[in-house]
Amino acid sequence: MTDRDDWGERLQTDRPHSARVWDYLLGGKNHYLVDSQSGDLILRNFPEFAAIARVQRSFLVRAVRFMTRDAGIRQFLDIGTGLPTANNTHEVAQGIAPESRVVYVDNDPIVLAHADALLRSTPEGKCAYLDADVRDPQKILDQAAHTLDFDQPIGLMLLNIMGQVSDEEQPERIVAELIDALPRGSYVALSDGTATNEQLKAAVEAYNAQSVNTYHLRSPEHIGSFLRGLRLIEPGLVRSADWRPDPDSADITREQGHAVAAVGLKG
């Protein structure tokens, strides 16, 4: 956890924050007027953006379910978790294996203010919450080691977070440092929006012009390169909705498919 004395300054309620805008797009209630206005601006430029957000959230559920049920993972490090909503990582994992341990990482003050909602672990398992930035992977790893055993496989969740890191901030180096710290048998789930639609790019540019955070759309190939060296689990790097969809999953339109996802195994 973190010192709350500076939360008022960090909230910056006069400018949109990514976690709060995402919460608005997912139909949540933990945001301010400036965030909903920014969300509406995105939707005016690209009406399917909220559907992409929901598709990304559904991928989280399927990826955690796969790691827990099929791969036997019992530890998760979820970086850039965002505001609590339905089917958080610990709820999915502990619903299958109650002894699962989950460490959430975020640096958005309103997310920190809602950490108690995330920390309701099963008695058999454990949840922890870190106030840290993905750009400081060593701090994350050092603090996560108080809850997770880095001698045992871990599921690393990097969902819609690397897009918040600019190319100048070397996202490849950050991901590599995180993966290097994982033991063999660990898995990495990655997803991000793609620069495959002009309207979407215009919507993100409009958002970046007014937000505290900026988001960087990349090509599917660039996003996939973050997992270089891992063995991708079938079906590999695909549209987020196409990664092992549930039988009753609704079809998505072409406009809702501008995000990719993959799960990789560190062998």
UniProtKB/TrEMBL annotation:
<dbReference type="GO" id="GO:0032259">
    <property type="term" value="P:methylation"/>
</dbReference>
<protein>
    <submittedName>
        <fullName>SAM-dependent methyltransferase</fullName>
        <ecNumber>2.1.1.-</ecNumber>
    </submittedName>
</protein>
<dbReference type="InterPro" id="IPR029063">
    <property type="entry name" value="SAM-dependent_MTases_sf"/>
</dbReference>
<keyword id="KW-0489">Methyltransferase</keyword>
<dbReference type="GO" id="GO:0008168">
    <property type="term" value="F:methyltransferase activity"/>
</dbReference>
<keyword id="KW-0808">Transferase</keyword>
<dbReference type="Pfam" id="PF04672">
    <property type="entry name" value="Methyltransf_19"/>
</dbReference>
<dbReference type="InterPro" id="IPR006764">
    <property type="entry name" value="SAM_dep_MeTrfase_SAV2177_type"/>
</dbReference>
